[in-house]
Specification:
- Strand 1 (about 5-10), helix 1 and strand 2 (about 30-35) form a beta-alpha-beta unit.
- The chain has helices at about 15-30, 40-55, 70-85, 110-135, 150, 155-175, 195-205, 205-215, 225-240, and strands at about 5-10, 30-35, 60-65, 90-95, 140-145, 185-190, 245-250.
- The protein is of the alpha/beta class.
- A 7-stranded parallel sheet has the order 3-2-1-4-5-6-7, sandwiched between helices.
- Helices cover about 50% and strands about 15% of the residues.
- The protein has a single domain, classed as NAD(P)-binding Rossmann-like Domain (Rossmann fold, 3-Layer(aba) Sandwich).
- It has 9 helices and 7 strands; from the N terminus they run βαβαβαβαβααβαααβ.
């Protein structure tokens, strides 16, 4: 067990990359993993699934319902976790949303403001409330950013801005928290096969082509898995003890080499 007897919080942990983190930290890390989402039924079902599969191991998944766009929900998760388990070793800020692709003309100012609250302000709040506990354990924070926060994305000005903010915030917080021996890193995934990706495939006029195009965007010829994202986060928490302020790109090489960029012709 690589992270045994540690206590971890994962936001947005009932599906997608968050679910991959919960699975890996419970099954390979041996951690107590508190995770949250807004969907109570979905969260409870995932908690039961993970714990049943790991019934003989030391790890445990614990679901708490929360909406990370509400500051008091974030505060409650952290306080309830420390009250129950007595400590906090790792915070994985994963919760967030990618709106449908639109031009800036179609996004309202309120659209942008509400996405900032969900994707970026929630991370600030979670870090702020968790740090008094993480400083005691010399723990670490992992913030989920995105490859597009570095390279941009068509029709995604609001989303890209929030992810770029996460990456920059991570570096600034790492500078401040080094004095307390708390490490702060980010992960920037590219195409990871998640339920959101499957929704896009299903909504496409040509699902087979959409999936093939998604796979072909990477040099490795496939999308990543949620478990691979979880494994990277476990490595950062358990083994990368001389790493802080670093954005870890997990893209399968999607950003490398030339590709068609212009829409002309």
């Amino acid at each position: 067990m690589r992270y045994k007897d540690k206590v971890v919080i994962v936001t947005g942990g009932s599906k997608g990359i968050g679910a991959g983190c919960v699975k890996v930290f419970v099954e390979q890390g041996g951690s107590k993993v508190v995770f949250c989402s807004r969907n109570e039924k979905e969260g409870e079902a995932f908690e039961a699934e993970v714990n049943q599969r790991n019934s003989a191991g030391p790890g445990q998944a614990v679901f708490m319902r929360a909406d990370v766009s509400k500051v008091e929900d974030i505060r409650h998760i952290i306080e309830a976790t420390v009250e129950r388990f007595g400590r906090l070793d790792c915070l994985i800020n994963n919760a967030g949303w990618h709106p449908p692709h639109k031009s800036i003309d179609e996004f309202s100012v309120e659209d942008f403001r509400s996405l900032l609250e969900l994707n970026l302000v929630s991370i600030f709040a979670a870090c702020k409330f968790a740090l008094p506990h993480l400083r005691k354990t010399k723990g670490n924070i992992i913030n989920m950013s995105s490859l597009v926060g570095i390279m941009g994305q068509s029709g995604a000005t609001t989303y890209v801005a929030t992810k770029g903010g996460i990456t920059s915030f991570t570096k600034a917080l790492a500078v401040d928290e080094a004095a307390h021996e708390v490490r702060v890193n980010s992960v920037s995934p590219g195409n990871i096969y998640t339920p959101l990706w499957q929704e896009a495939i299903d909504a496409s006029p040509d699902p087979v082509k959409t999936r093939a195009d998604g796979d072909a965007a990477q040099l490795l010829g496939r999308m990543g898995t949620i478990e691979e994202s979880g494994q990277l986060c476990l490595f950062l928490a358990a083994e990368a003890t001389f790493t802080t302020g670093v954005d870890h790109i997990q893209s399968g090489g999607a950003e490398l080499a030339y590709g068609r960029k212009t829409r002309r012709g």
